[in-house]
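Input record (one chain):
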Amino acid sequence: MAYQLLKGKKGIIFGALDERSIAWKTALRVCEEGGEIVLTNAPIALRMGKINELAQQCNNAQVIPADATSVEDLENLLNKSMEILGVKLDFVLHSIGMSPNVRKAIPYTNTNYDNFLKTLDISALSLHKLLQSCMKLDAVNEWGSVLALTYIAAQRTFPGYNDMAEAKALMESIARSFGYHYGFAKKVRVNTISQSPTITTAGSGVSGFDAFFEYANKMSPLGNATSDDCANYCVSMFSDLTRMVTMQNLFHDGGFSNTGVSQAIVEEMQKAAGVSGS
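The corresponding structure, as predicted from the sequence alone:
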């Protein structure tokens, strides 16, 4: 059901690769709620993905290639988006993350540092570059909303998440720090959403993902939040209903982040150990 929460609002969605992407789902929901968007991704991702299909479903939205690690590309993206949309932006979704160490299955304790720096640049510093470019160009309206997607591995250790954990921790810190400055300067809000493990092309590349997805689902009182659920949350954070929320890391994980252990997990461990419950 649509409520026209974003009627008249315009923005940019980064990172939609295919129909499993949270960014893809968010783009569709934004348009259902009356928003107008420009889509963007890295040139190589545009060639690999299906973003043109998404653009057609989003009222023939424009697609602009941009390397999020390049300030020049970001400034070009922002200027072209404002030209296409005819106004400054009301919202931006940063859904960007990539680790060469994860892709190459290089163990965390034997990390390749050139790869590590690329992970930090792509997955974290890109948010700072985006926000800095937005502020420099005055590209976001007052009370606008910038969101970045993150994961609880920024706070807790998940071995298979590798150096992406450091990248997410840095990204969350950037959101707080830049949120402070952008809030005072332009009333722009900056937040991160810490999502459940989600079946996406990127998420599925993490070692042991399938097993952990099931574990998290059994740990969470509400179960794992889906990509559709996350898209709805993003819409609410782009809307005027959340205009006083900024500098927050918002857990959207069915309660996983505050659950020590669930009864289902206890019973599974008892069964595996051959111990009967009391």
